[in-house]
Structure formats: structure tokens, C-alpha cells
């Protein structure tokens, strides 16, 4: 089996207080699952932490400095939902660097992924919803500046609307943002992207996949991007604590296969990030996050 390169860093998993509702343990467990499934036979590719300048090319420099100094207002910390301390900063820097490195690997190999990323609620001047820095927006803008790409598409299938990505890329017409999400879910105040498709509560596999198929191919054909950023959040699952949809494991797997195949059949490189997933069963959650890496491996056979 040929496999797509996978980027991983031990700093993807930060330390959180006991009982914190964010399932931080999924990152290390995912790395174990990927190795056990033979999806990283040569090991993982490790990124170097992102520096201030890379991040401040997208986020407000004052916000970036506040995060790096571990000194943010209490209200902002509450909105982020994570303690802004050293291991969380290290996680955020590693995650940004991981998505950019995975994007470069996708351009070289056709497919690649990072076993983190998808922090799509981070806006220009603040974090929110467990997201501190918007890794996809930062990576897309960096590749545009370098001339590595001229156009990109973000396919965001996390159950929550990609408000932060839309905000960070609102003045970047070279990147088309598409979000397929539960309409009544967080965030209450959506920030419009280029195409937003809000779905009704309780939607199951067949109807979800029909909505996905109605948009992904046409968007790729219309934009003809040089790269697809795919946020493969698994929180549309029926057992997710923060979702409102009702997909099964099989539905998530079919979704991932469709997005990967849509890019692959058009010869467009695709980079996957794992996005959200908030089930209490860490083993089941890691197995769902592994589905997109399985889909990429299968697409190369």
C-alpha cells in the first residue's frame, strides 16, 4: 500500500487541566492508530515550530504578541476555551507549521496530511472555539506569497462553520472558502465565506453525502485550484458531543473518500487536516480521525 506523507509533532498534544472538555488525548492516540494501521511506515514528518512573522502575516500582530507572551485578557481566554500557557502555545505553533509542511508535501506528492490542524474559528484578531491560530489560512497565504500556488480551495467539512477562515481570508480572493456545516451549531454569528451550506439538525449519511457531492466537484471545476485544503473534522458524527448531525463511521469514511477522489480525479493536490471531534471515547475518536488518512492511502493504490 502506498501512503501519503503524514506530518506529526509530539507538541500537537498540550497539557490541560484534569476534566477539561477538550479531548486533547486524541492527538497522541491518533499517532498510535496511524502507526498501527501502517499508514506511516517510514514514520512521521516533523515540522519546526512556526515563528511570529509567519503567523502575523495573517493574524493581528498585537494578538500574536499577546499569545506568545502568554498574556491575554480573561474574556479572550474564555472565548478561546483553552488555557493560554506554554504547552498550548507550543501546540499552536506546531499545528500551524504542520499544516504548512503538509501542504508543501501535498504539492510534491499529490496527497499529504497533518495529524492536527483545522483551527478554523481563529479570526484575524482573536481566537475562539478551541482555536488560537488559523493554520489553514496561514499556510494558504504563505504559499501564495511564495508563488507556490496561485489559487486554492478550502473544503471545510467540520460540523461548525469556518468563520475564522472566512475572516482571515476575506481579502484573499485567490482562496475560495467552502463550508458544509450544521446551520444551528456554533458559532452563533457566522462570518460568510465564498460558499456556505448550512445543514439541518439530525441529517444522516445519505442526505449529507448528497449535499457534499452537489458542491465539491462544481467548486473545484469553477475555481481550478492548485491545492485543496480539506478540513476533515469528525464532529458531524452522531455520537459527537458538540455536533448536531447524525453521520456514522461509514458516512464519514464515504465523505473523506469523495473529497479525496474529487481532487485526485482532477489532478489537484490535496492536504488534509483533522479538524474537530469531541466524542468522549478517545479510541473511537482517534479511529474516526484516521479515516481521512486511510482514504488518502486508498486513493494512491
TrEMBL record:
Keyword Hydrolase among UniProt keywords: yes
The entry's keywords: Hydrolase
UniProt domain Histone deacetylase: residue ranges: 20-288
N-terminal signal peptide: none
Cited Pfam families: Hist_deacetyl
Keyword Hydrolase on entry: yes
PANTHER family: HISTONE DEACETYLASE 12, HISTONE DEACETYLASE HDAC1-RELATED
Family, as annotated: Belongs to the histone deacetylase family.
The protein's name in its UniProt record: Histone deacetylase
Phylogenetic lineage: Bacteria, Pseudomonadati, Pseudomonadota, Alphaproteobacteria, Hyphomicrobiales
